[in-house]
Structures are given as C-alpha cells and as structure tokens.
Amino acid sequence: MILGKMPPPRLICDILSKVNANAQYTGILSPNRQDMDYSTYEVYDFDHVSAFNMSTGYKERSYKSHWHSYGEILLVGPGSTNIYSIGKNTYELVPDDIVIVWPMEMHSIVDADRSEALVTQFSNAFMNSLFDLRRIMHMYRNLHIICINAHPELAAKLKAIILEMKEIFFSDRQDREIRCCMHLMEFMLTLLDHRKELAPELNDEDSYGYTDDVMKRMITVTDYIKNNLTADDLSQGALAEMAGISRDYFSRIFKNVTGMNYSKWLNMIRLEKATELLAEEGRTLTEIAMLSGFQSIPSFNRVFREEKGMPPGEYRALFVGNGR
Question: What are the residue ranges spanned by the domains of the chain?
C-alpha cells in the first residue's frame, strides 16, 4: 500500500475474472489506510540503510496484517493456494502473478506457499527521490495485482525484470544496489508503458487530473514538512499558501495524493521521526518529542499511545532494546 474519500476500489481480480483470469475477490480482511494502526507498523533495518532488498524461502504460510514505510513487489511462486490481502481486498492468485504493495498500505498473507515466492522491497525515500517515480506511484496507487492470465505479455516482462534483479542482488557484485535500482526503475517504466492496457483497473475517475505543476507543489509541501517538523506553523492554511492554492483545494488534493487527511498524515510523519530517534542512544523522550514536532510531552505520549498501543518509553524498551 491510495486515496482519501475513495470510491470503492475497483477490484482488479474481480474484473479480471470476467475475462477468465484466475484471480478473484474473496472477501474483506484488512482496514484501509485511513484506519492504520501504528502497532502494526513493521520495522525492517534495510529501510534505513539501503534503497533495495530481496528475499525468498519463507516457511510460514501466513503473516498478520501490517504496514511499513517501504513498498514491496511479490512474484507469486508455485503452489495451489496463494491468497493475499491488500487494504480491503483479498486476492486468490496463481504462480507468476505479481503483487504490488505501495508504501504505507495495510496488507497480509492469508495463506500461501512462499518457499519460492520472491519478495522485492524498495525504499520510499528512493521512490520519492525522482518526480517521475512519485508520479508513477500516485498514478498506480490502486493497482495491486498483475494477473498473468489477463496480462500475459506484461506479466512476462515484469517477471523477467524481477529475475534479473534477483540474479544481481544475490551476487557478490559491489554495485548490486544501484543496478537493482536501475531495474526497479525499468519495472516502473514498464508499468507506465502499459497504462492504456491497465486503464480499466486503475479506478482513476477524478484523481489523476492533477497537472505536473500541482503535483510538484504538493511534493514541495510534503518535503518541507518532513524536513521542518519543528517549524512554528504547519497548519493547512500555511501550507496551502505555500502551495499557492486555496485551503479547501489543498485539503482535497492532499487527501487524494497521500490517502489520508492532513492531521493524520502529519502525526504519521512525526511518529516515524520519533521512532527513528528512539533508536538513537542518549536521546531523552523530551528531546525526541520536540525534534519530532510535538509541542509537549503529554501530547507526544498521547498520540504515541493511541497509535502504537504503548507509551514511547515502553516501545523503546520492547522493540529498540531487543534490536528489532
């Protein structure tokens, strides 16, 4: 895991079942992004030190509902049962189907043979480093499944790119990260090249009408917030003025672009910053609260407890102290 007041997501595999694709909608398991529970946030060390990671050989057939700040691409492996959930939708897939989980999307593995499934993980920071990559993420935020039976040519192209990344990543090349990132960009550009083919599945009723200029303004604003969490005025009015648009229009665009309202997103960014700082030795909770943009310790503790289910000191002892 992408909209604010989303129209009901077009169920990709439900649509594809009408053209005899194997994947189909089977139920609702997970909350949407607006209801994200920070206690389900997954911490993975690669996200802080690298732009790219790959893994395979999982023994567990299921994994609980969770979310994280990085994205994932999964190449479904052999097996008669492959059921994955993203947001509110559950998909029953076949080998060589491709699953895309965009950053900060709730998802889970319901039941799947993952021993030969190949998972690619990419840093949100890397994707945000280029405007075109951000635009592609926004453009395809409702696309989660590439079904091989419905898109055989596209699925074959994407699988070939994934296998090239695998060969490079599991080698001893010193330049493997940058080469894998080059292939990751090729993966995204391939999606872009097939936009007309994928258009019926994108559910883009009114959300892709933003010009590059508007998108650049919103990206400038979000970058400013991330880099200035201690600024005196981070109100919607102030940020709308920075973007050069009205407050109401800013609120609507922000929700569409980020998938959540402004106050929820701002708390998410502050908590992500606080979580990073909690891992640094010698920082007091007061210092962490201030550097994360919270105006007081009580407000920091309240938001942290509400979202993570425990106070920051307990979180530090439980997760950071255990080297998670």
Answer: 12-201, 212-320
The Cα 293–Cα 17 span in angstroms is: 48
- CA 29 to chain CA mean position, Å: 18
Architecture of the domain whose range is 12-201: Sandwich (2.60)
Q: What is the dihedral of CA 136, 209, 219, 179, to 10 degrees?
A: 10
Q: Which residues are 84's β-sheet partners?
A: 91, 109
How far, CA to CA in Å, does 176 sit from each of 44, 97, 124, 170, 314?
A: 20, 25, 19, 8, 38
So what CATH class is 212-320? mainly alpha
CA distances to 9, 96, 303, 307 from 126, rounded to whole Å, are 27, 26, 28, 26
Provide the whole-model pTM.
0.64
User: To 10 degrees, the CA torsion angle through 255, 256, 259, 260?
Assistant: 10
User: What does the DSSP 8-state code read for residue 318?
Assistant: I
pLDDT tens per residue, range 57-116 = 989 999 988 888 789 999 999 999 999 999 889 999 999 999 999 987 889 999 999 999
AA identity, residue 182:
M
Provide the β-strand partners of residue 118: 75
CA distances from 260 to 104, 169, 187 (A): 11, 34, 27
Q: HEC states along 246-294?
A: CHHHHHHHHHHHHCCCHHHHHHHHHHHHHHHHHCCCCCCHHHHHHHCCC
| Tokens 């994407």 found at | 158
